[in-house]
Amino acid sequence: MSLSMKKAVAILGAAAMMVSVGACGSSNNSSGSAGDASGDVTLNLWAWEPTLKPVIEAFQKKYPNIKIDFNNTGKADTTVTSLNNAIQAGSGIPDIVQLEYMTLPQFVIGEQSQLANIKDKTSGYEDFYTPGTWNSVSINGGVYALPMDSGPQAMFYNKDTFDKAGVTEVPKTWDEYYEAAKKIRALGSNYYITADAGDIKVMTAFLWQAGAKPYESEGENVTINFKSDPKVKTVAEFWQKMIDEDLINTKVATWADEWNRGIGDGTIASIFEGAWMPANLVSNSAAAKGNMRVALQPNWDASKPSNGENGGSALAVTAASKNQDAAFKFIEFANHSSEGIKIRTDGGAFPADKATLKDADFLKGSDDVRAYFGDQDYNQVLAEAANQVTETFQFLPYAGQANSIYGDYVGKAYTDKSTTLMKGLAAFQDALVKYGSDQGFTVKEG
To answer: Where is the secretion signal located (predicted)?
Structure first.
């Protein structure tokens, strides 16, 4: 097995399970070609986002010669596993694939990119998107996808619980959040300001906000630095204090039924999630209707606000597609045209483009979600959160492995008093350095 193929398999992380996607594969029998989108073409799309369905309908009305065969992959991790399986097999690769920003580098870095470089088609697009999302699709001087949505992290909190605890001002700094945590904890044995059992996406956004640089990569050269980055230490020590003083619920995992119930009844008084969260709250924690609010994530320095992304995804054209021009036409319609973007935001998606973040209709939000947030202009807060995201954060080119083992090292620190977050992050670094080196990356420690 060649080094590049070894890496293509390695970036699956721990995904040894083989996942199949029905009716998959790029359309090799159509008359269209990489340089011609005018003939009759059938494109295969792998994605998990349901708001793409009405986008496909609108696109096919506008371009009747291009048919989109949509294969719902279920979720982001399944998509990565399936795509890696297809790459390893050398067949069945889709024309277009939805990928989270954190997993894009693993399909680009190596001897041969598995995604098409669309830089020559996207001149001037940089100013269309928010800095964080555009930075995430720009890798090693190329552009390998168009941003589809974003997930600037925000604080969703129960105003009723905050009021009961005497927290009358929303915390603007982490020191203020700590003081609020003590007041909420005093409400009773089951009250906590938040719950966290070790969520890598939330922690990544915390590190991003703080200006930490745990990962840096240039091609196949990777630097991993949790141990000596002072910003990592700042974040880890803050949350360690919250754990040590029993100010956060470390027994309830994100997305568990108990987590949703705690948000609903206010015993979990706040959570940190991406701007895509409102519709999930309406569905999963309905009991909090009217009491919930959204606020900017507390900052380390209120005079210098910053933020990080939690989630978000892009649409990429695969290098294996025989119909790259037609495929680009679709991702451009979905992610760059006002029509395609509006279809998705009307369906509850959070945008990656600057214009929509200023649009009056978008900022007003939906009536149902406004009612849930006590008639708050929730999208205005989330748009501000997006504008605070810095653009200088890199992901590990084998993010799948990092995600799969994070709980074994860092997650353990939330419930095991014999270790700490910094010790867990140090062990996490050791494991990632070894894994990357074993797969042929040149890895050094910062």
So the answer is: 1-25
| Mean pLDDT across the chain | 91
Contact at 8 Å (CB) between 164 and 218? no
pLDDT recorded at residue 43: 98
What secondary structure letter does DSSP report for 229? -
Report the distance separating Cα 263 and Cα 252, nearest Å: 11
N-to-C CA span, the chain: 31
Residue type, 331: I
Provide Rg for the chain, Cα atoms: 22
Note the CATH number of domain 154-309+392-445: 3.40.190.10
Specify the pTM. Answer: 0.90
Does pLDDT of 34 surpass 90?
no
Q: Where is pLDDT greater, at 28 or 392? A: 392
Q: What's the CATH code, domain 3-150+312-358? A: 3.40.190.10
- CA 432 → CA 25, 65, 395, distances in Å? 32, 46, 13
Domain ranges of the chain: 3-150+312-358, 154-309+392-445
* 204: enclosing H helix or E strand: helix 200-210
In the numeric block, the tokens 């974040």 are attached to 235
264-285 average pLDDT score: 97
Give the C-alpha separation, 134 to 147, whole Å.
Answer: 7
- Mean pLDDT computed over 232-251: 98
Average pLDDT (104-131) is 94
Question: d(Cα 217, Cα 338) in Å, to the nearest integer?
Answer: 34
3-150+312-358 and 154-309+392-445 have identical folds: yes
Q: What is the rounded distance in angstroms from the CA atom of residue 313 to the CA atom of residue 126?
A: 16
- For residues 243-265, give the mean pLDDT: 97
